[in-house]
Amino acid sequence: MKTFNLVSLGCAKNLVDSELMTGSLLSAGWQMKEDPAEADVLIVNTCGFIQPAVEEAIDEILSLAEYKAEDARRKLVVTGCMVQRYQQKLMEELPEVDLWVGTEGPDRLAMYIEQMIAGAPEVLHLPDRRLMSVEMERALSHPYFSSWLKITEGCDNRCSYCMIPSIRGKLRSREINDLVKEAKLLEEKGVKELNLIAQDLTAYGNDLSTDVNLPILLEKLIDTTSIDWIRLLYLYPNRIDRRLIEIMKGSRRIVPYLDIPFQHVSDAVLKRMNRNYTEKELYSLVDRLRMDIPDLALRTTFLLGFPGETKQDVEAVERFIRDVQFDHLGVFPYANEEGCPSESYSDQIDEEEKLIRVDRILSLQKEISKKKLQRFVGTTQDVLVEGVSAETDLLLQGRTKYQAPEIDGLVYINEGMVNPGEIIEVEITEAHIYDLVGNVKEQKQID
Ligand code: SF4
To answer: What is the CATH T-level fold of the domain 146-374, as seen in this structure?
Structure first.
C-alpha cells in the first residue's frame, strides 16, 4: 500500500495544509495518483465553517466511499476543518471512513496512515495546536510560478457569525525568519507571484514580540527575495495603517491590490457582527487608499441576510458599492451556523429573502465591473501567463497584477509565443464583464 489520492476542499489556507499532507506522504515514499481508482488510500481534506461546505465534504466522502466498495483493502481518510469541528459526532454517521485527522496534523498524515495500516486502534487524531514551518515538506499543488504563503493560523477576532476561531483556534503567527526562508525556497522553485494569506493578515505578529508585524515582514520579503509580485489577501479594515500603505507605495513588487472583507456597512449590522468599524471609517479608508495608491485594485466581500438586517441596511450597502466602485466583489448569504454567537439572534431572515438580497448586489456589481474594466482597453499591462485557457482550449490565459488567482477575472491572450510563468506585456483590446482580451506586445528589437 503506497499510493494515495487527495481531494482538497475549501480555502487557500486549507490547500496549503493539503500540500503539507502531500509532502509528508511523498517524503515517506508514497506515490500520488490523480485517479482515485488507482489509489490505495483516498484522502479528503475538508472545509467545515458553514453548512454548504460540510454538505460538499460529505458528498465527496460518499462518492469516494464507492471506490472503497470496489476494493475492500482500500482506505478512506478524512482530514481538516470538518473533522476538527464535529470530531466524534461524524464518526457514527460515516462508518465508511477508516481514519479521521483534525486540522493540526497535516505534516504527520503519513505517520497516522501507516499506523492505521499497521493496525493501530486510534481512528481519530486531534493533535494539539501547532504551526506549520518551512522545515515541513510541502508539495506545491499550484503551477510553479504562483504560490500561497500562509503567515498565521487561527484568529483572535470574534465575528459573531464565524466558526473559524473555534475550528482553527487562537491566532498563531509564524516567525519572520521562517517565512523569509519559505519565500526564498518558493522563489528558487520559480515562484513569480507570492500570495500572502491568513484569516486576518493585519493581525500578523500580534501574538509575537512587538517588533513583528505585517509591514516589517513585507520589508524583509522585499529585501531578501526578488519575487516579482507580492499580493496581500484578507486584511481587517480598521487595521490598515499608514506604515503598510507607505510600504506598498514604496515598492511596485507589492502589487497595488488589496482584498479587505468589509462584510457590511450598516453600523447596526456591523455592531451585531462584532466587526469593530463604522460606515464612516470605511469611506475614509477607501479615500485614503485611493489617494495614496491611485491604481489600487480593491476587492471586498459582503455578507447579506444577517439577523435583523433591514431593507434600509441593504440599501446602504448598495449606495456604498455605487460610491466606492470596487474592482472585485464577493457576496454571500448569511449562514446561521450551529455554535456561533449569532445563531441565537432574533430576527433571522428567511433563505429566499437572503438570496434576493445577494442577487441584487451581484447584479449591481456586474454593471460596475463591466464599466470599470473599460479603462484597460488601449493600455499595455504586465500579465502573468498561466497557460492554455481551460475555457477556450485555444487562447492563452493570464492575469494582470490587478487580478488575484482563482477569485478574479482573467486576461485572454489572442496570440503570441509565450510560456506559462512569464510576465509579459499585453496590449488590451477588449474588456468584458470580468475578463480582458489582448495581444502580446511586439518587443521592439533593441539594436
Ligand atoms: S476575522 Fe472574523 S470572519 Fe475572519 S476568520 Fe476571524 S473571526 Fe472569522
So the answer is: pyruvate-formate lyase- activating enzyme (3.80.30)
CA of 238 to the centre of ligand 1 (A): 14
- What is the three-state SS of 152-182? EECCCCCCCCCCHHHHHCCCEECCHHHHHHH
Q: Please state, as a whole number, how many other Cβ atoms lie within 10 Å of the Cβ of residue 93.
A: 10
For ligand 1, atom 2, the nearest C-alpha belongs to 159
Strand pairing of 75-80 and 124-125?
A: unpaired
Task: Enumerate the domain spans of the chain.
Answer: 3-125, 146-374, 377-443
CATH class of 377-443: mainly beta
Q: Which of 156-160, 319-323, 394-398 has the lowest mean pLDDT?
A: 394-398
- Which residues lie below 8 Å from residue 31, measured CB to CB, with a gap of 6+? 2, 3, 4
Cβ atoms within 10 Å of 41's Cβ, excluding its own: 25
* Residue 360 and residue 314 in contact, taking contact as beta carbons nearer than 8 Å: yes
The set of cell numbers assigned to 446 is 533593441
Predicted confidence (pLDDT) at residue 201 exceeds the cutoff of 80: yes
pLDDT of residue 415: 72
Atom of ligand 1 at shortest range from CA of 234: 4
Looking at residue 1, its pLDDT comes to: 67
Classified as helix, coil or strand, 331 is strand
Q: What pLDDT was estimated at residue 446?
A: 47
Cβ-based neighbour number of residue 318 at 10 Å:
14
Average pLDDT over residues 382-408: 92
Q: Is 238 in the pocket of ligand 1 (CB under 6 A)?
A: no
Superfamily holding 3-125: Methylthiotransferase, N-terminal domain (3.40.50.12160)
> Whole-prediction pTM value?
0.95
The response to whether residue 171 sits with its C-beta less than 6 Å from ligand 1 reads no
- The percentage of the chain sitting over the pLDDT mark of 90, rounded to a whole number, equals 92
3-state SS class at 240: coil
Regarding the beta carbon of 157 and ligand 1, being less than 6 Å apart is answered: yes
Ligand 1 in contact with 166 (CB < 6 A)?
A: no
Q: Which of 206, 218, 212, 124 is nearest to 172 (CA)?
A: 206
